[in-house]
């Protein structure tokens, strides 16, 4: 059975452990890159990653966009929402449907 993981700074992801999601706190981009590779090559179908960390690892995350698994989903961190997650949703919808049916070209 596949698992769900959360990757990011400790303060941003700590609460996910309370609902049974495995957390993987990292302190820098190099550590996060190694951890992401380990998670993506393993038993994890969904990997939530903080938006700030996603921005630092964007090139590496792009390697997984054409793969069925894992789904790498950005979440806001304690520093706030950068809007990156919503932009990714918009881009995915446009790619799947062929036009922007959700945001109406906002």
Strands in their spatial order, largest beta sheet: 2-1-3-4
Task: Provide the β-strand percentage band.
Answer: 15-25%
Question: How far apart are the first and last residues' alpha carbons, in Å?
Answer: 39 Å
CATH architecture call: 3-Layer(aba) Sandwich
Unreliable residue runs: none
Q: What is the total domain count? A: 1
Question: How do the helices and strands line up, and which of them pair or pack?
Answer:
Blueprint: E1 3-8, H1 10-13, E2 22-25, H2 29-40, E3 44-50, H3 51-56, H4 58-62, E4 71-75, H5 84-97
Parallel strand pairs: 1-2, 1-3, 3-4
Q: Which characteristics define this entry?
A:
4 strands, four-stranded parallel β-sheet, 5 helices, alpha/beta, globular, Rossmann fold, 106 residues
Give a description of the structure:
- With 106 residues, the chain is an alpha/beta fold.
- Helix content is 39%, strand content 21%.
- The chain has a four-stranded parallel sheet.
- The model has no long low-confidence stretch (mean pLDDT 85).
Provide a brief overview of the structure.
The protein is of the alpha/beta class and 106 residues long.
